[in-house]
Amino acid sequence: MPGFVESFGPLSPTVHGLVVSSILLPAAFTSFFAGHLADKVGRLNAITIGAVIYAVGAAVEAGAVSITMFVPGRALAGIGEGFFLSTVVVYICEICPPERRGPVASLVQLLTTFGIPAGYFICYGSVNIESSYSWRLPFILQAVLAVALACTCRFLPSSPRWEIDRGHPSQAGPAIDRLQLDIQQFQEELESARKTAGDKRELEAQKSYQRLLWVLREDNRKQAFLGMFLMGAMQFSGIDAVLYYAPTVFRQAGLSSTQSSFLASGITGIVIFISTLPASFLSDKWGRRTSSLWGAATMAFCMLLIGSLYASGSVHPQHGAARYVVIVTIYLFTVSYSITWSVGFKLYVPEIQPPRTRAAASSLAQSANWVSNFLVALITPIFLDYSSFGAYYLFGISIVGTGL
Known about the structure:
The protein contains 21 helices and no strands. By secondary structure, it is mainly alpha-helical. α13 (221-235) packs parallel to α20. The protein is globular.
């Protein structure tokens, strides 16, 4: 945004990447401990703590008077984000019956994709404000929404599974009633808790870092490593490179004005939201493996095609059909990702974890996702500045490797 540049001055590609990615490493670090926090204080309390920290960080960003104040605000927001994001999926998986778990858990991704175009269009609307509020307003709204999330958690039912695992079956009863779960499922939860009670007592006796290493036991580590790999691979598909730097990507393809690039970015978000709808409601009907392979094939084709067009010198910002091919292919890539990997991987990872390590293993997977996200956010503007095609080839080859 011009207003942001006026406030802080122009940023080099390296500094640009560092500023954008500064939210991600703190999120990766805290999400590593999010499972322990969620096991200790409860799923909803962990989400509340994360939301409050995020709200404070967003408020610091909104009030920043220098880049040295802005970056710590993003880091603080990342700490909160790391705490609540992975816990939300675990909470949803634990309050839903198996037959509805897929569609309901998919709503997280669906609402995330709704937030993407909303964010772009907020920026599209605020970019012409003739003051620093042109860029401060989006961060103010983020802080308000985070406070709303924290307040909402106070009215939601606790996770019955967590109450049972903590040895409070009487407190799980009211939650099951509010969630309208079948009493037979409640009895099954009790029986499952009894079978794993010895593991839980051993887990409670360990120190925090030892508890996190519990997921690396021989009977748990295969699922944990697979979850970490898949969540990391999601970012190296290049989806967040497109989302974080969509205005830059579209300007490179010929949309020169700031408003035009934000508008095209907002349309990208709408495309993602619309394409996520069928994936959310049909997630349990589509096989995880099949959708993942189809997604890999389509996304790899898109990235390699864009890279080849830039490498061959076919894309010209002011003329030629190749620039329109690039724009359409970016949209095709986002559709493919949204209906396959974005929903399938995020459901599959917590599903394959044993109940006693689900929260911790999901946190490790989310940490891998954040670390990969940090690397992608850091290197993308540098790649785009020095090579118009290098980033697309990198992402395309990564997708092929994951598919294989």
